[in-house]
Amino acid sequence: MRDVAVVGFAQRQMKEFEGSPTCVELLVPIFAELFEQTGWTKSDIGFWCSGSSDYLAGRAFSFVSAVDAIGAFPPVAESHVEMDAAWALYEAWLKIQTGEVDTALVYGFGKSSAGVLRRTLALQLDPYTMTPLWPDTVSIAALQARLGLEGGHWTEKDLAAVAQRSLADAADNPYAIRSGKEGVDELLARPLYADPLHKHDCSPVTDGAAAIIIAAKDHLPTTAERPAWISGFAHSVDQADLGSRDLSGSPSARRAAISANVGGAPIDVAELHAPFSHQELILRKELGLDDSVSINPSGGALTANPMFSAGLIRIGEAAKQIWSGDAQRTLGHATSGPALQQNLVCVMEANR
Amino acid sequence: MTGLRDGHVVGGRTSDGVVRVPPPEFDPVTHAATTDFVGVASEGTVVSWTWVPEPVKAQPLDHPFAWALVKLDGADTAIMHAVDVASNDAIHTGMRVRIRWAAERVGAITDIACFEPADTAEHSESFSADEGSAEGVTGVITPVSLDYVYAASPEESAFFRGMAEGRILGQRCPVCRKVYVPPRGACPVDGVPTTDEVELAGSGTVTTFCIVNVPFLGQRITPPYVSAYVLLDGADIAFLHLIQGIDAHDVRMGMRVEAVWKPREEWGTTIENILHFQPNGEPDAAYETYEGHL
Ligand SMILES: [Zn+2]
Q1: How far is B78 from chain A (nearest CA, A)?
Q2: Structural domain total, chain A
Q3: Which residue of B has its CA nearest to A127?
Q4: B48, B57, B149: which to substitute to probe chain A, counting the most A Cβ within 10 Å?
Q5: A75 alpha carbon – ligand 1 mean position (Å)
Q6: A91-117, pLDDT tens digit by residue?
Q7: What CATH number is attached to the domain comprising A61?
Q8: Is residue A314 part of a domain?
Q9: What is the number of CB-based contacts under 8 A between chain A and chain B?
Q10: What ipTM was predicted for this assembly?
């Protein structure tokens, strides 16, 4: 395996982006920021890979317009996944493993506010037996939350504690669109949103974009003093039929964690892509993270969840913890699909 | 789906002995096609539920309702569907519910209108299955409609405002000096926003075109008709529009055309102000004048 490190990360998250329906415009300053971080220009990038969705943008081939932001002439090597850009990062990492390229820039973008997000996401369900009923994402998460509550896996207080910590941590994150100082009891006293979930248990509709640069050993930018070396990278998926899954757990998250060797050494910081409070509890259990691990110091997806980049942002935030010297070994996680159906885990380390 | 049309629910027994509803197409373990179909009851038990105070478009009920995972009697897995109850106090895990069939059934999941508490007055049993139609359901139609709010970028906004005044506005890239119309948030060569405004003439050259012969949903002109790239005079990128006022088969590369606008009182902030392009009578442009735009 080639040693590959995360060496650049930039992001934008906002409640509502007042621009065209794709958030492509956000990529121009983000790329500029990455080039400033690395001292590179676009000719230093061997491969470009993006994650976005036409259903979110409401137009066909919306990712093609994103290529404009690169300035793709002369032509560049480019690819796209209709998934969170964390999976685009996986593709780029594989591409570097093949030896075909040495560096890659990965980006994700999406304007969730252009449509009714919880309806748009009904299109990721089984098209024969589920989509025709238009079950919304929030309701599916609520069914999952109740199964865990009534099955004794977590309590309402546990959920509120996750929200409380996330909102408090988000106060230090300029990109978070939600934060707060409320205590657990105050949160529990709020009205229910999707019984048994409160609004603070559900990630807010968020617009945004993010990008990451990765590079192979011997091809790092000179600015990378403490690169975040990727030591484990894996993803897995559970079956589509909700009724057949044990929703109080996430076998695919467990499998991904094993493949990425999460348990091989202690994790200092984990950034988990949990769009609903109870999903953080599921992930902590399935990834084997005990109470010594600092979870989501950025505030996590409960405080900003831009579709198609929130997972990539988790990896970027976890990488930053290594760059700053605050952590030795961190984990970035991304999810996709209803109720934690697909999960990706990226373990990064200071030492190689 | 055939079972649903005929008013009963069919599950599939997979190699692990589990009866799954709806039946999966392929076995999750052996990956073989599911062949062991099992009838299950139209009554079952709520496994989990949530409350929907404000239903969104196209959900099974248009008044507040509960979503539930329901395990039908005889099945081992639950199905997600709506339960018609008056409030979140009227549903609980373990509650018995039964299917309320749709008045007209076609062989789709929506043949189950919703579930209702199993202790309410009988009316679902009154239906008699249509024994006459033995043909299986072979297809399902799932209409999908999503609404979006389109917010124009600053560059697009300038273009559409120009349209409302009968002007075609492009913008020049500050780096490569190329003129883009419509203007864009990023020059595809340099990755920077276009800036200086450039007003373009309504005349241009057909660089390439296609004759549309295929009818499709939402089509407004009867085929055959021509969709073409028109390189407006002064622009560096071609503009996609229709060519009319000439037989489709006489349209050619290099043909000189001009914009035909709608009557002024019908103008809005839309590209539709230009009805189409038509030949302007000038001699064809030389190939060299547009070869760099193909
Ligand atoms: Zn340019």
Answers
A1: 4
A2: 1
A3: B142
A4: B48
A5: 14
A6: 999 999 999 999 999 999 998 888 888
A7: 3.40.47.10
A8: no
A9: 168
A10: 0.89
